[in-house]
Known about the structure:
Shape of chain A: elongated
Largest sheet of chain A: 6 strands, mixed
Largest interface: A-B, 44 and 31 residues
Distance between the termini of chain B: 50 Å
Oligomer: heterodimer
CATH class of chain B: Mainly Alpha
Structural class of chain B: mainly alpha
Shape of chain B: globular
CATH topology of chain A: Rossmann fold
Number of helices of chain A: 12
CATH topology of chain B: ABC transporter involved in vitamin B12 uptake, BtuC
GO cellular component, one term (chain A): plasma membrane
Distance between the termini of chain A: 84 Å
Pfam families (chain A): ABC_tran (PF00005), BCA_ABC_TP_C (PF12399)
CATH architecture of chain B: Orthogonal Bundle
Protein name (chain A): Amino acid/amide ABC transporter ATP-binding protein 1 (HAAT family)
Order of helices and strands of chain A: HEEEHEEHEHHHHEHEHEEHHH
Low-confidence stretches of chain B: none
GO molecular function (chain A): ATP binding; ATP hydrolysis activity
Number of helices of chain B: 15
Strand content of chain A: 15-25%
Low-confidence stretches of chain A: none
Strand order of the largest sheet of chain B: 1-4
Keywords (chain A): ATP-binding, Nucleotide-binding, Transport
Amino acid sequence: MPDDxxxxxxxxxxxxxxxxMPREPGVPxxxxxxxxxxxxxxFGGLTAVDVDHVEIQRGSITALxxxxxxxxxxxxxxxxxxxxxxxxxxxxxxxxxxxVPAHKVARNGMVRTFQLTxxxxxxxxxxxxxxxxxxxxxxxxxxxxxxxxxxxxxxxxTERAEELLVRFKLDxxxxxxxxxxxxxxxxxxxxxxxxxxxxxxxxxxxxxxxxNPALTQSLLGHVKDLREQGMTVLFVEHDMDMVRDISDWVxxxxxxxxxxxxxxxxxMSDERVIDAYLGAHHDAPLSDTELESxxxxxxxxxxxxxxxxxxK
Amino acid sequence: MxxxxxxxxxxxxxxxxxxxxxxxxxxGVNIHFGYTGLLNFGQAAFMAVxxxxxxxxxxxxxxxxxxxxxxxxxxxxxxALLLGIPTLQLRADYLAIVTIAAAEIVxxxxxxxxxxxxxxxxxxxxxxxxxxxxxxxxxxGHYGIxxxxxxxxxxxxxxxxxxxVLLSCLVVYLLMKSPWGRVLKAIREDEDAVRALGKNVFSYxxxxxxxxxxxxxxxxxxxxxxxxxxxxxIFGTEMTFFAYTIVILGGAARVFGPVVGAMIxxxxxxxxxxxxxxxxxxxxxxxxxTTQVGPIRYALVGLGFILLLVIRPQGIFGDKREIAINAx
Lengths: 312, 328
């Protein structure tokens, strides 16, 4: 665990970067790791994603929120190469990433997890972890047959995997099949496995979905930990308590577009966000004259009804 | 009742040419299906192109035996590429559809009248095994113990055959405990997760398809070498599904699963068939004729496999914990 001064400094520097930043969608950040421009994804007649411009600040925890069907996961899929955008461009660390296949996106240091956890069930927890390591010599066909080529590297990978498992409190499960873990443990394993890739940007798709409350705190701690270790985190989440607790900046999507950005403390009181979640003018007060005329209408209707009844 | 014949033929089946041929075909299927999760229903095609590659090279093109082997191996590798490039990017079931269709296309091309001059039509090709048996170091005689044993021709075939089977098992063992095999097994579980971890899934699936296809094609060589001929209808879909049965019987994703599965498969097949034939011949089963034994033994062997899988759903070598996870 990093000491407190470190924690505060990382968080403080992230917050300082966002201080006094305008709340407009697509606002430029001082040091963006990911810059997205005009990404469009259509499914037939439906435009699922139409993001004009978004920047993700390096070294921060950014939340991506929005009502159901806002296109958050689809947006994730475009950025990570799991789906092909119809138009648009984005750069990661200044390198163009549109059209790059998913595995190369990951190799470049942009690693994602999935909303529905993808534990590799019939592999042990430790094998799941080892798989995440990059540039493995033993993963080439010819060298794989001669253990001498990869044994040393495998030991290093195992050591790193075990350190991570201890951190994520999964070390007791190392020899169990990943399929035997609980839902929350699978989320932990997936996050730990993503860290084996040694990413710069970690993209978490609903990390809290289906996790029991006892594990939530530990998962939150791990996400915060990622920032302390110098990684950037972008995550999709529905749980507003979690968003308020750990994020430095919030991007709000609705109907495929980014409608607002802002700090977590005030974003939920932003009118555009409330409109997106609850519908426009849902709680706009009626004016006095409107109220009066409505009352008169109701009265007249009642009187007419009474008259009708008595005349029978 | 001629028990001696029943027992000797059964023992011979366990270590005989059938176990070599079907064992190799099943080792290939095990790499595809057991380790990588690829549904290749065209294993017979890999055997066919190899068997015909050797036969045509030797008989039609008058090339030496070793050139025939090289051509057969190359044909299998090319077939894997042709099948894999369009389908491995798609969902798993597409590979199943394409491979089963491709296997039938290959068989029908080999038996077509149009290519009769090259492939010999439905008669196939024969007369290409001379060089192989000329290399036989065993002097003529009987090799074995008592009633069990083979002549010098068969013992040479089996020596080479089982060496190749064991070598294939060694390759599978080395590969599957390496990081390369780990990627394959991970693809079987969830290929999107593997992609998200920076592995080129398409490339690994292609390597798996090639390796399994090439090991499977060795079965085609050995079929031709033992029988002295290749015929198109031998390489039907039945061949592929026997290989699948063997893999599941032995336990998928186990190194020796396909080999032991093939032995059990043929022991059951020969034992049930011969016992039944003897019983009918000696009048113990009056309502059956000897010609009915063939179909009935398929039914009985099928019943045996069902029982075996009810008792051991994971196969002979399988791990019960894996089945439990699958059931979720």
